[in-house]
Amino acid sequence: MPSNSRERSVFPFAVPIGIVAVVVALVWVFSRILLNVPKEVAVAVALMTALNILITCGIISVRRLSGFAAVFLVIVISVPVVLGGAAAAKAIKVKEPVKPSPPPAAVLVSAANTAFDTKTINLPAKGASIKFSNKDSVTHNIHIFQGTDANGQSVFAGSAVSGGSTATYDVGSLPAGTYFFRCDFHPTQMTGTVVVGGSGGGASGSSNALSISAANISFSTASLTATAGSAFTVAFDNKDSTPHNFDIVSGPAGYTKPASLPTIVPPGKTQTYSIPALPAGTYKYQCDLHPAAMTGTLTVQ
Questions:
Q1: Model's pTM, two decimal places?
Q2: Could you write out the DSSP letters of every residue in 177-229?
Q3: Which of 54, 163, 274, 298 could potentially form a cystine with 137 if both were Cys, beta carbons 3.0 to 4.6 Å apart?
Q4: What is the DSSP string of 123-156?
Q5: Residue 237, SS3?
């Protein structure tokens, strides 16, 4: 077959096949790069690469290179692409998408017999919420003030909750520290302390001295925060008519629950548990006597 005829029959197929091969290689290589650069830079790099491919293919088409020369040109173009891709695959680590953190669990607070079930409410520094259950026959609410009494500035005023009803208060984000709270309808009988970030005023947003209570087969809060790498204590006040305890039962990989069962606390008694330093992560705590009803999340950070 004459060379001109062979060129006319082979070249039209070689060009698109070569273009596809180059495009596939470039897409794979540059996908490794584009995933690791800012969006604006990624757009510029992608446009320049597409333009380079078009120009290269245009040169090949206009000059009508011989079959050997065309194959050689494709090889010359492909070799650095393949080598660069192999290097990129080893040297460039694709960024994993950032997984949004789940919002903190609502802190559980209840009222009965014209009294809150806890004197201390521990709130996370960001996205705090309180699930308030009014088990009384009269109206109550939760009002939070700066300082140690109601003379401080109001930072959150919960709506009135009628007897037998429940409301979830979206407190939002407050600076770490200690606040005063009360029921506006019974301001002298129903008062307590709010600890934001568990720090009691510290800057770290966490604490080495936590507190929690139990009443009506329920913990006073379903969310606690502690400092990673530091031992801490949990002061447990059993205000219920049945025994309870506080036990950290699971955590991130590597956490092993102690073999011994934490001290069971009789009704009306208190117990301070000493917890050894824990790595950062999310842990589950429970009452071992009522594991289905009494659980919560301990965040160590």
A1: 0.42
A2: EEEEEE-TTSTTTSEEEEEETTSTT-SSS-BSEEEEEE-SSSBS-SEEEE-TT
A3: 163
A4: E-SSSEEEEEEE-SSS-B--EEEESSSTTSPEEE
A5: strand
